[in-house]
Fold this sequence. Notes:
The structure is a homodimer.
Chain A: E1 6-11, H1 18-29, E2 40-45, H2 48-52, H3 68-71, H4 79-91, E3 101-107, E4 113-118, H5 123-135, E5 139-143, E6 159-166, H6 175-196, E7 207-216, E8 228-230, E9 247-251, E10 256-258, E11 266-268, E12 282-290
Parallel strand pairs in A: 1-2, 1-3, 3-6, 4-5, 5-7
Antiparallel strand pairs in A: 4-6, 7-12, 8-9, 9-10, 11-12
Amino acid sequence: xxxxxxxxxxxxxxxxxxxxxxxxxxxxxxxxxxxxxxxxxxxxxxxxxxxxxxxxxxxxxxxxxxxxxxxxxxxxxxxxxxxxxxxxxxxxxxxxxxxxxxxxxxxxxxxxxxxxxxxxxxxxxxxxxxxxxxxxxxxxxxxxxxxxxxxxxxxxxxxxxxxxxxxxxxxxxxxxxxxxxxxxxxxxxxxxxxxxxxxxxxxxxxxxxxxxxxxxxxxxxxxxxxxxxxxxxxxxxxxxxxxxxxxxxxxxxxxxxxxxxxxxxxxxxxxxxxxxxxxxxxxxxxxxxxxxx
Amino acid sequence: xxxxxxxxxxxxxxxxxxxxxxxxxxxxxxxxxxxxxxxxxxxxxxxxxxxxxxxxxxxxxxxxxxxxxxxxxxxxxxxxxxxxxxxxxxxxxxxxxxxxxxxxxxxxxxxxxxxxxxxxxxxxxxxxxxxxxxxxxxxxxxxxxxxxxxxxxxxxxxxxxxxxxxxxxxxxxxxxxxxxxxxxxxxxxxxxxxxxxxxxxxxxxxxxxxxxxxxxxxxxxxxxxxxxxxxxxxxxxxxxxxxxxxxxxxxxxxxxxxxxxxxxxxxxxxxxxxxxxxxxxxxxxxxxxxxxx
Lengths: 293, 293
């Protein structure tokens, strides 16, 4: 990619993640905050109906509604299936998107701090991630290797990524995290501006990357009901090492359940509210250093 | 009240407050945990349909559905209106309830710790509250003077109270708070058992009471949209003194808004997710010492 011409900031892809929704409102009322000389900035409220009801979605998770075949399927008529088609018209089509970068603003009940979620390891996004970690060491970078086409909203564009902040309860604003997310958005825009102007230097220090390696579900009974909770020692310990034998769950009658893996991993999205229904108690990552040159 | 014959433990009055729901499941599978020799213990899942959808309610807040006139109104047919009538059949009727005590288990995104919410200051509930604070100094006791008939589920019975724990996000289990709530329920049952057996001593040390004195809404624009967040200095500071001039809100563009009251108050339910729609950013209380003899 040479010059960046259009950037989309999306919030409220999940209607109960208020940080992104209210940041969008702020930006839309103060366009100068996100305007930069060398490119156009669009803002988009992902799921307005779900936001009205303070819910993640109405019929289906909008952020799992962007498979090409679903976007082309005229039979799908749930609210999010239709909304995905509208959004594709505004930002897409996939592979030939009208925007160069999508920044999708999310929040989580997990202690994800300020996280950048990447779907592809392209030198452009890696340099951006390295820049963001260099100016704010709190920023963590996660990477999920794609085994198939992505169904995420940000996959409409080759250089889409998510900013994921937490812990914050659903349908709540946390002012501190709001302001940190706001600063991170400005840092992204400033980086893109300087890149367009050719005045950025490559950052050559290694980048710490948390590479997605699978998920662990809650223990469940034969009816699919959970039988245990995240262990208190693991709660809010996202990005911390989890060793074989460490407790991960606690049954309702107080029995600890250990992690039975054979190597140390770094769990993220520990106890994310929206993942109970997806069969995910946490995601496991490997921590790796990436030479960035 | 002489002898206590029946006690109802209710959880999931709000379907996305998981602590109570899963405590009920534990109790129902291990009845001995809540069985005591001198009285009968019932368990009741308040809003099963809302729990299935991980929502507070389907059509209307169940915990605002217990006005006598609503219970008698055959035209009201929303899910919670009907569910309230079913629950009244099981526990009520109001004023002549089939149970002597209702313990309603709630959770909140606010930092309420372990709170007991009382609707009436009766020597019986005051002694119970004093006992609970004596064995666990973490326990706080709140009191809302009733200006009219209560529409809360626990008002079905003269000696109903809520246990309110937090902070915990909606639709999430926090193991530490789960276990603390569990212990508190056992302490209540043990107290009632010993009272029936006549082996409790009155606790004469003064009881600290947080008396409800009103609510503050978020600043809103002409469309009813909130214009500010809870100030970071106030977030999670439930039960701490708030002085005139202290910051309480922060606008989205970063301006602090001060508390304009004329006396020191003790806010609770600060930034409770479910109260955004009710026009409540926090509740204000006065702290008072009650002689308990």
